[in-house]
Every structure is written in C-alpha cells, then in structure tokens.
Design brief:
There is one protein chain. With about 325 residues, this protein is of the alpha+beta class. The chain has 2 domains: about 160 residues, Transferase(Phosphotransferase) domain 1 (Transferase(Phosphotransferase), domain 1), CATH 1.10.510.10; about 110 residues, Tumour Suppressor Smad4, CATH 2.60.200.20. Helix content is about 30%, strand content about 25%. The chain is built from 9 helices and 18 strands. Strand 14 and strand 15 form a beta hairpin. The radius of gyration is 23 Å and the shape is globular. The two termini are about 35 Å apart.
Length: about 325
C-alpha cells in the first residue's frame, strides 16, 4: 500500500489504498496500540484497505493553532507532539511522513496529541517533524536561539534532546540542593537498581517453600532466540537460547553476557532483552554498529517492546525472537 488517498469530513477521516499491509505492524496496531496513536476501524477487500478514523472530540493541530494564534503554547504543543511520536516509536509504530502535517495530527480535549500510524514499513526521514514545528512558530513561543537549536535537533530526529530543551525547569527543592531533575531521576533509578542487585545477593539464603503457588503463568513468558527461522529445520540445527530471566545480555564479552555474539561488528555488551509485566523489551546499549528490529534501526539506550515474533540483527548476525507462554 505505497500510495493512499486521504478524505476528511468534519467528524471522520478516511484513508484508502491498495497493496499489501505489514502483518506484524497490523497486529501491533490492533492489539498493542499506544494511546498516542489514533484508533481506527479497517475494511479490506480485493487487496485494498480502507481505514476509518472517528474524529469526534478531536481538533487538528493546524486548526487549533490558527484559532488560538499567539495565545497557544507552542512549547507545550511541541512537547506533546514529541511525546506522542516517541511513544509510538517505542511500540515500533512509525507514523508515515506524509501524515505528519498540521491537518492530520490531532488534539483531544486535554491537548494530548494523537498521530496516525498505518501498518506500512516506513522509516522516519530526517526532519520528519519540521513541517509541524513550522506550524507552531506563529505562537511566538520560541526565541530565535531556541528555534535554531530545535530546528537542528528535529532535522536530526533527535526527539530526546529536543524534549529536554523545552522541558520545564526543575522543581525549586531540587534547585536549592543543587541537583538537576535529570541527575535526580538517574540517582533514584540507580538506587532502585542497587536494591534489586542487593536483594538478589541474599536470595539464596532464604528458605524455599516448594509448595508456594507460582505467579500467573502469563506474567512469566519465555523468550526464545534462534539462528534459524522458527518452525523450520534451520531452527533445530542452529544456535538457540531460552530467555528465562528478567535481564538477558548479548555481546562479544563472553564473561559478561548471557548470549555470545561472534562478530567483531558487535559490541562487548551490545544489547539487552528485558522481561517486565509479561512483555519483552529490547535495548541497544550504545553499540557502534547498532541494533535492527524488523528492519528498523533502534535508538541507543531506549527500550522498545518486542513483538511476539521478530527479526533481530546485531552487526552482521541475524536472529529470530519468539515469545511463548
């Protein structure tokens, strides 16, 4: 479905086109759609798909800025937009560049941003949000210096730094003690990690009640990494690992990782897979050559949800991930 048509009325948006849809992305949109992505209903027939979006209670970003003018808060709107895009990316749902325009990005009654994601394999092009940023400039909420910095960051699709630049100042109590909000957040996270590690050290000294019931099985899924495609002979013959822990490290340093990556293009500790609340997450740990998930290169140090089936690439090595319960 490379080409599509967009038709909009006051309370409905219709997007239609012919071609194949990505089944993995469609499953994520139907079952794991994040709140920042506008919900839809779908009708398919004869190789063509039509998406229906109910716009009751929503207002386009362009319409809102036009109506409010300089009374609108450009920083708050940009921050909400960045939050929506980052949330969608974390769920591996990249908005189509042609849909990132003021008339097709929407605000709800609380001014939270809703974007449109389609089950199409796309990559965010450099400067994908520049058209939307330009639409916010009439709010007169950005100094020339900030406008230049944001333009540079958005051109590079560095949404993390852009959000930090327009973030609110730290609370007064943090300023008085000389601790920035970012440092305080990292300190608290580090303290929580120390507690978890320390608790693990003494776990073996506790008595084990073998009659204690297990937690809900659905909350303890098993992850499988295989060299071959699941369900084929290659899977049986190739390397395979079962993920039964909450943190699973991958890399070239066999002394520190759980899964050895025999490729010089891979980092010593290249990436990790986390298990939380019955879901698996993948995070690139700053590797030089990156980590690719279903054809999309991941941002460094940002967790993304792993679908139940996915193709992973670390350096030149390709593996398949499967989640089982």
């Amino acid at each position: 479905m490379p080409d599509f048509q967009v038709r909009r009325t006051r309370n409905e948006l219709v997007i239609s086109g012919c071609g194949s849809l990505d089944p993995y992305l469609l499953t994520r949109l139907l079952r794991h759609r994040p709140p920042s992505v506008l919900p839809f209903s779908l009708v398919t027939a004869d190789g063509c798909a039509t998406f229906y979006f109910d716009l009751h209670g929503f207002e386009s970003l362009g319409g809102y800025v036009y109506a409010k003018g300089k009374q609108a808060s450009g920083k708050a709107l940009l921050n909400a937009l960045l939050s929506a895009v980052r949330e969608a990316e974390s769920a591996l749902l990249w908005p189509h560049p042609d849909l990132l325009v003021p008339g097709l990005v929407f605000l709800d009654s609380r001014h939270s941003v809703r974007i449109i994601a389609l089950p199409l394999p796309v990559q965010m092009k450099p400067g994908a949000l520049m058209t939307l940023f330009d639409a916010l400039l009439p709010t007169d909420d950005f100094s020339p210096e900030m406008q230049a910095k944001l333009s540079s960051l958005l051109q590079a699709n560095d949404y993390e730094q852009a959000a930090s630049l327009i973030a609110s100042p730290p609370p007064a109590d943090m300023v008085r003690h000389g601790i920035s909000a970012l440092i305080r957040t990292r300190l608290l996270a580090w303290q929580d990690k120390i507690r978890v590690k320390t608790a693990a050290l003494f776990r073996g000294s506790r008595e084990l009640d073998i009659t204690a019931p297990l937690d809900d099985v659905a909350a303890m899924p098993i992850g499988i990494i295989s060299e071959g495609l699941p369900g084929t002979k290659d899977e049986e013959l190739g390397e395979k690992a079962f993920i039964l822990v909450d943190e699973f490290l991958l890399g070239r340093d066999s002394r520190k990782v759980d899964f050895f990556l025999d490729d010089e293009r891979c980092g010593r500790i290249h990436a990790r897979i986390l298990r939380r609340r019955g879901l698996f997450f993948l995070e690139d740990l700053g590797s030089k050559n990156g980590t690719v998930l279903d054809g999309h290169r991941l941002a460094k140090y940002r967790e993304v949800i792993l679908p139940d089936q996915a193709k992973l690439q670390f350096g030149n090595l390709v593996y398949f991930f499967t989640r089982e319960i």
